[in-house]
């Protein structure tokens, strides 16, 4: 997470922990850090805590990082609290913004953590303000994600180009290329597929990489191939958020039974009741029921 990109020691624990986190092998990242936990640097520990948060084990972060911690690692405790208590997000963001303003943050942890919480709260413009002007590839990759969520593909492409100038073969640069390609459309989607496939072969398939491939297959109407990689993703993690959503979408597109679609929906509601996708679907369903009720009443009055 260092602010400036330095020559990476590809044999270092930090390199492996970081890379495993990037490709979505979160337990792999944790396993690289654990043997050195007692003497690990703040930066190395940061990937273990980010990985714990990614696999919904934030309670472990809270147990390791106490409230009186005076290092940037305190940011991960704040992240856990924000995810667990959304009603306190604004207060937590206020604390983080104070740290961003006064801490030199050589590790970039305060900035990344603050931006992630802004993204979690759908405040993408505020996240971009925190990350603006940074030449750190993690900040730039997160900015690309924000811009894509805001449908600013043009700006995301520009920022991706700057990442390529810094390090074209860096994992985050390659992933950013894939994200932009997916958002651009069918002509570029195959390029994204090759990136995800290369990482699967070079490292190991993860739900993140397999879902990237599945989205390409769905976009190019290769539904059998999409189903195969999503099934493989389920073997990696049976309740993966993106996998369940993509399976539900694929079931709709291929005319699967309502029971199949409902099964995926029930799993999403069970495992991710407060997720953006579930809350949005529930709001749309409630609005639909409301409109149906209104039309039913109007029809009854007309007939009367």
TrEMBL record:
TM spans (from-to): none
Primary localisation category: membrane
GO CC, alphabetical: COPI vesicle coat; Golgi membrane
Assigned keywords, A-Z: Cytoplasm, Cytoplasmic vesicle, ER-Golgi transport, Golgi apparatus, Membrane, Protein transport, Transport
Record keyword Protein transport present: yes
A GO term for molecular function: structural molecule activity
Gene3D superfamilies to which the protein is assigned, alphabetical: Tetratricopeptide repeat domain
Record's subcellular location: Cytoplasmic vesicle, COPI-coated vesicle membrane; Golgi apparatus membrane
Any single biological process term in GO: retrograde vesicle-mediated transport, Golgi to endoplasmic reticulum
Keyword Transport: yes
Membrane topology: Peripheral membrane protein
Subunit structure: Oligomeric complex that consists of at least the alpha, beta, beta', gamma, delta, epsilon and zeta subunits.
Family statement drawn from the similarity comment of this UniProt entry: Belongs to the COPE family.
Its job: The coatomer is a cytosolic protein complex that binds to dilysine motifs and reversibly associates with Golgi non-clathrin-coated vesicles, which further mediate biosynthetic protein transport from the ER, via the Golgi up to the trans Golgi network. The coatomer complex is required for budding from Golgi membranes, and is essential for the retrograde Golgi-to-ER transport of dilysine-tagged proteins.
Protein name: Coatomer subunit epsilon
Organism: Glossina fuscipes
